[in-house]
Amino acid sequence: MGIDDELNGQLELEAAMELNRRQVSEEQLLRFEGYIADILTAMGLDLNTPATVNTPRRFVRALYDSTEGYDGDPKLLTVFHTECRGGPDCRLSQVIEGPIHFFALCEHHALPFHGHAYVGYIAHEDIIGISKLTRLVRLFAKRFTVQERIGQQIADALDSMLHPHGVAVYLEAHHLCTQMRGVREVAPKTRTTFWRGEYENQPDLRAEFFKACGL
Ligand SMILES: [Zn+2]
Ligand SMILES: [Zn+2]
Q1: Phi-psi region of 182 (alpha: psi -120 to 50; beta: other; left: phi over 0)
Q2: pTM, to two decimals
Q3: Is residue 128 classed as helix, strand or coil in its secondary structure?
Q4: Phi and psi torsions of 196, nearest 5°
Q5: Over residues 53-78, mean pLDDT
């Protein structure tokens, strides 16, 4: 692989990560703490106790940390080259990781949804370390988003990182925006699947993926 190919791969990967690197100054954070203090007080929280006096600060920091997926993950850039030998191994052998626990914020309510992801792929000439699949899930989950988009982004990013023969993503999550309000306290899990490449037209591969995931 030449330098140009490598550079193009890097750019393609950066694009697939759909980053939105944040620049939030200390001065802004202080201002946000004031807004949050107003809101929490109006909602009924007494901020004049030793336990709560720093709650607005903690809330703003927690929100920032919970959405750090926008800033990217430099450890995701390493891809290992193998040799595709063709044949059934290349078309059928799956790498499957899961359950990968994730936490996200729903973009409609800014409240959490959380659950598990299962990610599978059929390698061609490139592979990544297994722990990178966890990083990839968190890169897209730690944002304001929806469950469907996380799955699509994981599938598309793996596609551009590895150019594999196929990608499978299954997500199941509880959405607190439906569970914390109103009467639906115990809502069912929301399940979503995404298939790319060989998985699209091979039901056997999809069945094997679910079976390997214990689903
Ligand atoms: Zn919501
Ligand atoms: Zn191959």
Answers
A1: left
A2: 0.90
A3: coil
A4: -135, 150
A5: 93
